[in-house]
Amino acid sequence: MSAAPLRVALQFLTRLPVSAPAPDAALAGRAMLCWPLAGALIGALLALLGVALGYLGMAALPLAVVLVIAWVAVTGGLHLDGLADSADGWIGGQGDRDRTLEIMRDPRSGPMGVTALVLVLLAKVAALAVLWRLGNAIPALIAAALLGRASCLALYLSLPYARTEGIGRSAADNLSPPAAWTALGLAWLAAALLAPLAALAAAMWVLWVRRALQRRLGGFTGDTAGALVETVEVVVLLTAGLAF
């Protein structure tokens, strides 16, 4: 099997120095099937960094801060941008679909967008610090990054794309549902083996967000998919902290 879809996925989702062919619509669709695997690789890299820092004697709180900084760096803040835009649009749109989409299209971040970014990053630092003290941060990290990207597949499979154009339009039109359902199921099974309660909590959160998006927008956008990635990661980390 060609590694091109995974390389395309890593090139899109990370800032890792990965060489990949310029994707056509079909390859972009196949690359989406590799998003959960790309997430697991992101989590594994962060876990290795955490182990190295712990070996050097770094305390849990500063270690968690470094891990979150590395998390942002390796993803290039891709999903944080979507989180900020979605928060601004969701609050500023006041229930109106067209107004919500218009605000999300604005590249500038308003007060709610900034607030959402701060809260999510603080939640990740706090959860990771607790998990590292408990000695169970590694499976939670991998599960969080894996399920964050898998949750995007869930949106693509269950909701229409809300815009006529956009970064996710082509991929949405060329995704194979049977293959995507298989990838999604395997991703959640792997996460359940790593952090069972967290995987359940993430599934419940995805279902709630999907329902909210369907009611407000009648679908999803790239920004809302990014927001889902970030919030799923937080849900997984916080739940894993409660479970141990």
UniProtKB/TrEMBL annotation:
Q: Mind telling me which residue stretches traverse the membrane in this protein? A: 35-56, 63-80, 112-131, 138-159, 179-208
* Keyword vocabulary terms for this entry: Cell membrane, Cobalamin biosynthesis, Magnesium, Membrane, Transferase, Transmembrane, Transmembrane helix
Pathway where this protein functions: Cofactor biosynthesis; adenosylcobalamin biosynthesis; adenosylcobalamin from cob(II)yrinate a,c-diamide: step 7/7
Q: Which domain of life is it from?
A: Bacteria
Q: Which reaction does it catalyse?
A: alpha-ribazole + adenosylcob(III)inamide-GDP = adenosylcob(III)alamin + GMP + H(+); alpha-ribazole 5'-phosphate + adenosylcob(III)inamide-GDP = adenosylcob(III)alamin 5'-phosphate + GMP + H(+)
Instruction: Please verify whether the record's keywords include Transcription regulation.
Output: no
Q: How does it sit in the membrane?
A: Multi-pass membrane protein
Q: What class of enzyme is it?
A: transferase
**Requisite cofactors:** Mg(2+)
Task: Provide the protein's localization.
Answer: Cell membrane
Query: Might you give the EC number(s) for this enzyme?
Result: 2.7.8.26
Predominant location category: membrane
Task: State a single Pfam family of this protein.
Answer: CobS
- What GO molecular functions are on record for this protein? adenosylcobinamide-GDP ribazoletransferase activity
Q: What does this protein do?
A: Joins adenosylcobinamide-GDP and alpha-ribazole to generate adenosylcobalamin (Ado-cobalamin). Also synthesizes adenosylcobalamin 5'-phosphate from adenosylcobinamide-GDP and alpha-ribazole 5'-phosphate.
The record's section on NCBIfam families has: cobS (TIGR00317)
> What does the sequence similarity comment in the record state about its family?
Belongs to the CobS family.
What is the protein's given name? Adenosylcobinamide-GDP ribazoletransferase
- Record organism: Isoalcanivorax beigongshangi
Q: What is the lineage of its organism?
A: Bacteria, Pseudomonadati, Pseudomonadota, Gammaproteobacteria, Oceanospirillales
